[in-house]
Amino acid sequence: MAEKYEYEYFNVTFPVEYVAHIEISRPEKLNAFIEKMWLNLSVIVKRLSHDPNVRSIILTGAGDRAFTAGLDVQAASQGTLSQGSSDTARTATALRRHIFEFQDCITALEKCEKPIIAVLHGVSYGLALDLSLSCDIRLCAADTRFSVKEVDIGIAADIGTLSRLPKAVGNFSWVKDVALSARIFGSAEAEKVGLVSGVYGGKAEAVSEALKLATLIASKSPVAVQGTKELLNYSRDRSVEEGLRYTAIWNQAMLQTKDMKDAMLSGLQKKTPKFSKL
């Protein structure tokens, strides 16, 4: 199975049944992203989303120093950002298309049918927030250093942080504090505001805990897990009434599945249910 997922700058492994592990692998550059990386990540996530052998995913960064330092600014300055036209409308059109493509690649994590657990450690700047906020669960090591770094390079964050961070933490004053200042904050502050749901002593411990959680999620009905992620994400951006209506429409099909019968029966019989691949 691992041989099917060979993409430059990423290691994809399958540590236990139904769990995939995506490791960002450019440690010599603090896992900073170049264009090929976000394009490859999108392909990987979309494939895992439809892979019946996968029910949950872990996302980590290689090495001890960083989850990711964000966008490789030097590479970006020599790529699309440097290829301007003398005509502002044409330059703006090219940049808009480029930004939309980048956004779509990161949003692929949010749209993935399988829950994704991000495990952050060390340097976790800029794009690290965009990536992890598109994931479903965020854990981190005690040494994690976060920063919404974009104002320090002269731009407003445009890949997702400014849209998702306020909804993830529920404290708009704090969001503006870190987004406007680009100040570095640590794991304790991240946990306090709800950016992460767990802080662990080191990277290895954090990854181990993520694997336990991913394994637990993978043991549940894949129909129920997929539906729960879909309905939570839908309801986050809409009214309670809209969320309830969509839930009813979704479950009018999902309540007919064999998974529900097996889960209920296993509870009565005190047995561990086994669910078919989805």
Automatic annotation (TrEMBL):
<dbReference type="GO" id="GO:0051750">
    <property type="term" value="F:delta(3,5)-delta(2,4)-dienoyl-CoA isomerase activity"/>
</dbReference>
<dbReference type="GO" id="GO:0006631">
    <property type="term" value="P:fatty acid metabolic process"/>
</dbReference>
<comment type="similarity">
    <text>Belongs to the enoyl-CoA hydratase/isomerase family.</text>
</comment>
<keyword id="KW-0843">Virulence</keyword>
<protein>
    <recommendedName>
        <fullName>Enoyl-CoA hydratase</fullName>
    </recommendedName>
</protein>
<dbReference type="Pfam" id="PF00378">
    <property type="entry name" value="ECH_1"/>
</dbReference>
<keyword id="KW-0576">Peroxisome</keyword>
<comment type="pathway">
    <text>Mycotoxin biosynthesis.</text>
</comment>
<dbReference type="GO" id="GO:0005777">
    <property type="term" value="C:peroxisome"/>
</dbReference>
<dbReference type="GO" id="GO:0005739">
    <property type="term" value="C:mitochondrion"/>
</dbReference>
<keyword id="KW-0413">Isomerase</keyword>
<dbReference type="InterPro" id="IPR014748">
    <property type="entry name" value="Enoyl-CoA_hydra_C"/>
</dbReference>
<comment type="pathway">
    <text>Lipid metabolism; fatty acid beta-oxidation.</text>
</comment>
<dbReference type="InterPro" id="IPR029045">
    <property type="entry name" value="ClpP/crotonase-like_dom_sf"/>
</dbReference>
<keyword id="KW-0443">Lipid metabolism</keyword>
<dbReference type="InterPro" id="IPR001753">
    <property type="entry name" value="Enoyl-CoA_hydra/iso"/>
</dbReference>
<keyword id="KW-0276">Fatty acid metabolism</keyword>
<dbReference type="InterPro" id="IPR045002">
    <property type="entry name" value="Ech1-like"/>
</dbReference>
<keyword id="KW-0007">Acetylation</keyword>
